[in-house]
Amino acid sequence: MNKSIFIKTCYIPIISFLLVGCASRGQVPPAPNSMASKIIFLNELPTMNIYDLRMVPVNNFLVVEADIIHNDDVDSILKTAPWFATLPVLVVGSAVQPLFSTKAPSDSIQYRFQWQDKNGMRVGSEENWKILNFSPSQAQHIKGIATSQYAVDFKIELKSNY
Amino acid sequence: MMTNHINIFSLSIVLTAMLGVTGCASNRPAFSAGNVAYGDTKAAETLTNEIGLTDFQIMAETMTTSLLTSPLIASSKQKPTITIADIKNKTSEHIDTRAIALKIRTQLSKSQVVRFMGDKADEKHALTELQRQEQSGRYSASKSVKMGNAEGAKYSLYGEITSIVKRAEDVKNIDYILNLTLEDLDSSEIVWTEEKEIRKTSERSLF
């Protein structure tokens, strides 16, 4: 067989397969500076609602706070606090079914903050992972503080605790 | 009849061993060749309920971020000078509290908004080096460091770590409380204080 034909017949399908593979995994990138653009998922998570994300400098150090609630608890919260529906909400995790059994006392995730300078480069040492347990009907609050004054932006990394 | 008993006995031993192996496997890191594996030091380590690196990291991070966002830093025209006094270990465990103190010092130093002066442990090294430079006769008097020029810290950082242990049937609960204080050595005013609580719960394994 001619070598160039062999290359075309073997490599083109492989390259096409890889491209299709990439395309099927691809999602619409979040808008810059949107709430979604600040979150990085490392694996499947229980379905959660991040309904508030705040960033403010204190003593020139960036302070970030996020409020998170488990998806199962949204309906019960809406009954007592209808204003909750007006908040901008980012639903994350496996949206169809909660990942973990309802028999579990609480779902649990791990998170940490990444801090970036004005050029998008990481600032400071890598943070350690922190565990966040979800108790039923309880919103959780996470807070991160940059330890360098060069940090001007952030990302929150989330992963399952299991 | 006897053979049946032996078979059931053997089967139960095999099943027990299999369950034991599976139980142990869940917390084990992946070993490649040999019996050594590198782990992620930033991962939440839950091998036992004793205090570990993850707890040190959480404590240091809480203390550092709290101090950096405190009014003391906002109101200081110059970088505050701090020395580490002592973190007392009031738990029943052996805890290297100096390791916690050094973690806090490292993180605060990297922030570049405070200055650390040598503490008691550092002073031993400094004095040894000063004496060596003065007494060896090798160094020029004008180009070696002099005794009596060190700058004293304005603030002293000290604290203690305590623990509360509770047991109920197969469950053991340990609460660690780290409390730190920053004192103005001139006025003896407590200018900053913070505490961090960590609860660790463990269940006695069947195997």
Task: Summarize the structure in words.
The complex is a heterodimer of chains A (162) and B (207). With 162 residues, chain A is α+β, with helices and mostly antiparallel strands. Chain A has helices spanning 3-25, 74-80; strands spanning 39-41, 48-58, 61-70, 90-92, 107-116, 130-134, 140-145, 153-160. In chain A, the strands form two sheets. A four-stranded mixed β-sheet of chain A has the order 1-8-5-6, with no helix packed on it. The longest helix of chain A has 23 residues, at 3-25. Mean pLDDT of chain A is 70; it is low at 12-26 and 93-105. Chain B is 37% helix and 26% strand. Chain B is built from five helices and five strands. Chain B has a five-stranded mixed β-sheet, with helices on one face. The A-B interface holds A 58-59, 61, 63, 110, 112, 124-131, 145, 147-149, 161 and B 41-44, 54, 57-58, 61, 64-65, 68-70, 73-74, 107, 110-113.
Shape type of chain A? globular
Radius of gyration of chain A: 21 Å
Biggest interface, residues from each chain: A-B, 19 and 20 residues
From the alpha carbons, calculate the radius of gyration of chain B and give it in angstroms: 26 Å
Helices and strands of chain A, in order, run as: HEEEHEEEEE
Number of strands of chain B: 5
Distance between the termini of chain A: 52 Å
The major beta sheet of chain A can be summarized as: 4 strands, mixed
Which word captures the global form of chain B?
A: extended
Question: Which assembly state applies to the chains in this document?
Answer: heterodimer
Tell me what portion of residues of chain A adopts beta-strand conformation: 25-35%
Helical residue percent of chain B? 25-40%
Percent in helix of chain A: 10-25%
